[in-house]
Design brief:
Number of helices: 15
CATH class of the largest domain: Alpha Beta
Bound molecules: phenylalanine
Order of helices and strands: HEHEHEHEHEHEHEHEHEHEHHHHHEEEE
Shape: elongated
Strand order of the largest sheet: 7-6-8-9-10-13-14
Helix content: 40-55%
Strand content: 15-25%
Largest sheet: 7 strands, mixed
Structural class: alpha/beta
CATH architecture of the largest domain: 3-Layer(aba) Sandwich
Number of domains: 2
CATH superfamily of the largest domain: Response regulator
Distance between the termini: 81 Å
CATH topology of the largest domain: Rossmann fold
Number of strands: 14
Length: about 400
Amino acid sequence: MKRNSKIWWGLALAVVSMVLFSCAKKEDVVILGEFGSLTGGTATFGKSTQRGIEMALEEVNKAGGIQGKPVRIVVEDDQSKPEEAATAVKKLVNQDKVLMVLGEVASSRSLAGAPICQEAKVPMITPSSTNPKVTQVGDYIFRVCFLDPFQGEVMAKFARNTLKTSKAAILKDIKNDYSVGLAQFFTETFKNLGGAVIAEESYSEGDIEFRAQLTSLKAKKPDVIFIPGYYTEVGLIARQARDLGITIPLIGGDGWDSPRLIEIGGKALENTYYSNHYTPDDPRPEVQKFLADFKAKYNEIPDAMAPLGYDAARIAFDAIKRSGILDEKNIKDAYRQNTQAKSLMEAINTPGNRERIRDALAQTKDFPGVTGLITIDENRNAKKAAVVLKIEDGKLKYVETISP
Ligand code: PHE
């Protein structure tokens, strides 16, 4: 009996100390936030980004974390809605008290989250929002992708010089900042190159019927239709356009990029082209290694959002390291100044430290990303090349790379 109880006490002690030990370990973690569309109309945007971020996270933790501190990322789903994006970012900033935020893909949702990060002085990096207004929100908002004035120019030049078209029509999503902006930038360059935009129609995200707009565009006899939208609507628009006998090229921007596009649009997507951030055909070793790792983990070829998410996360980790906030001396000082702190995050997550991360991010130079060499300029933007892709036999075909 006595021996038994000793064993029980011993076991209980072991369990208690294991729990205590794991708690203590858990608290020694660096916490970042991510908001994205894991569900809703553009669910592949958020899911693909998440996979890329997850890969970067696994890699950094496998290597022992950032300066020996493991990293955790709290992920919030915004259901593809700007209002939910704002709620998600408020939670990350106020409740989870994250050190930095990664997200979003869609410009309208980044624009909903950015003011909250800026106000709280929590650095935010969008992997893929291309509308100029996003980083104009303030000095804590960064991006690692090209911008729409460039992307619009790329597709206008492509339409004018490569496809040799002179009369363009536009079909845009009227409530989407990205779509409205890209339509405008395309128009500017197309006109400068001597082309004319002869007709313009619009729709709203979630619409499924586009025949009225397409019929009116068809009547004006354009040579090409520019559709700066997201994949779900674009897939349906392509099908309805072909049904109506519209055989001219349909072209668009990065918002087309999703494996769902071809599932929805099928054969209607022959003779279509769009600009994008990367191609799996790029022989650069960064791209090929990422592809091999991604295939090993997910058994798929990723769209552009996975490598963009991967690059954004790695730039975040790199900036935290370069900021010096996890240097031993800095951590000791942080605990000394906040004797109440019960975790690493409670000690180090101060406005001063976040400012140091911000400054380190601003100094990002020649970072060898999967999506290209990334240098952050004085407006917290990246200058990168774009690729033009063609959809042929239900597959993406690389056409050309355009450098800024
Ligand atoms: N650039 C788009 C936007 O700003 C989002 C996007 C990026 C979509 C990359 C697909 C691929 O809204």
